[in-house]
């Protein structure tokens, strides 16, 4: 039986993923300078969370990712929530993405009705291509599963130098995965993984909790051949190639100039779809928590990643709905 990614890619050459969430919240005036990072918005500004998801859908995203990257029971409890409240917030993160999808689908139906009426009169200038989706092809919701280092909020998600073993990583992810599954996402986005033991731990956690939701596994990378802790990306792809739970394998939160080589390295090890969503091309300074440099032409870069073999393409830090609209413009032409 095909998983939902395989089903969609059987009829679409490319699936368009959404872009950055935390930096998009910042662009709209919401501070994420907190140990919870973007997860703070789940309880402070759920309306804004929903709006960001909705704007990515309007830009043409086929998949939106929940605001749960840095959401953990432990993190919410440190903020003063009870364990029950914390668990509900994790579930809520997925529900907000699903609500945004529902709103978008209602808008699409209204526009399809409008398009039909205007077509009969020979004019349909108001209908955007991203809103012309056939019934039964609604966008997908992926629950974000951030790495252990995101919970630590110490930058170790980009190093992978955790002071815990694989058993501890499995225990850390297991209950959170079960809560995210309660939100009924279509997919799990196991992302920004800096080390192979964490990917193995997530696979173990999925099996322990008997979670049968297709997952993609994407790694943060230091160059065109290695993930953040120095492990070759080829080793990660080789391991996940034999993992039924892994519906796609790829790279995120990585500089754009490395993406083509990383795609090729993954494709040499597996036939599974490759997912890529790099950063904008700007550099982040951890010392002053600011971005420097110039963003790349993201839509043009995305064409090269498609040509190298990526099938699911979006953006990570500092990308926006405009960047996703640029990808959708050629991917859905």
Automatic annotation (TrEMBL):
PROSITE patterns: HCY (PS50970). The keyword Iron does not apply. Its cofactor is Zn(2+). Keywords: Metal-binding, Methyltransferase, Transferase, Zinc. InterPro entries: BHMT-like, HCY_dom, HCY_dom_sf, Hcy_S-methyltransferase. Zn(2+) binds at residues 253, 316-317. The keyword Methyltransferase applies. Residues 3-331 form the Hcy-binding domain. GO terms for molecular function: S-adenosylmethionine-homocysteine S-methyltransferase activity; zinc ion binding. One of its GO terms (biological process) is methionine biosynthetic process. Pfam families: S-methyl_trans. This is S-methylmethionine:homocysteine methyltransferase.
């Amino acid at each position: 039986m095909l998983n939902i990614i395989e089903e969609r890619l059987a009829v679409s050459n490319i699936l368009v993923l959404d872009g950055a969430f935390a930096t998009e919240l910042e662009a709209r005036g919401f501070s994420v300078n907190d140990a919870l990072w973007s997860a703070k918005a789940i309880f402070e500004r759920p309306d804004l969370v929903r709006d960001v998801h909705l704007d990515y859908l309007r830009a043409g995203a086929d998949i939106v990712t929940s605001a749960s990257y840095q959401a953990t029971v432990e993190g919410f409890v440190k903020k003063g929530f009870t364990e029950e409240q914390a668990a509900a917030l994790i579930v809520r993160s997925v529900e907000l993405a699903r609500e945004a999808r529902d709103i978008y689908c209602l808008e699409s139906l209204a526009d399809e009705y409008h398009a039909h009426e205007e077509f009969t009169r020979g004019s349909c200038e108001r209908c955007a291509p991203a809103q012309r989706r056939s019934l039964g092809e609604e966008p997908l919701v992926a629950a974000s599963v951030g790495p252990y280092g995101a919970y630590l909020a110490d930058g170790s998600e980009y190093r992978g130098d955790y002071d815990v073993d694989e058993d501890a990583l499995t225990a850390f992810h297991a209950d959170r995965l079960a809560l995210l599954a309660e939100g009924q996402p279509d997919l799990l986005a196991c992302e920004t993984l800096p080390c192979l033991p964490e990917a193995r731990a997530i696979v173990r956690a999925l099996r322990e909790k008997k979670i049968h939701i297709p997952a993609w596994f994407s790694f943060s990378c230091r160059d065109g051949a290695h993930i953040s802790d120095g492990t070759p990306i080829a080793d990660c792809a080789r391991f996940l190639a034999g993992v039924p739970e892994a519906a796609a394998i790829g790279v995120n939160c990585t500089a754009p100039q490395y993406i083509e080589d990383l795609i090729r390295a993954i494709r040499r090890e597996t036939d599974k779809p490759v997912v890529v969503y790099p950063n904008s091309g700007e550099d982040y300074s951890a010392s002053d928590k600011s971005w420097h440099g110039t963003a790349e032409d993201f839509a043009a870069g995305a064409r090269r990643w498609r040509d190298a073999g990526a099938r699911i393409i979006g953006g990570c830090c500092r990308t926006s709905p405009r960047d996703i609209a640029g990808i959708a413009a050629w991917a859905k032409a």
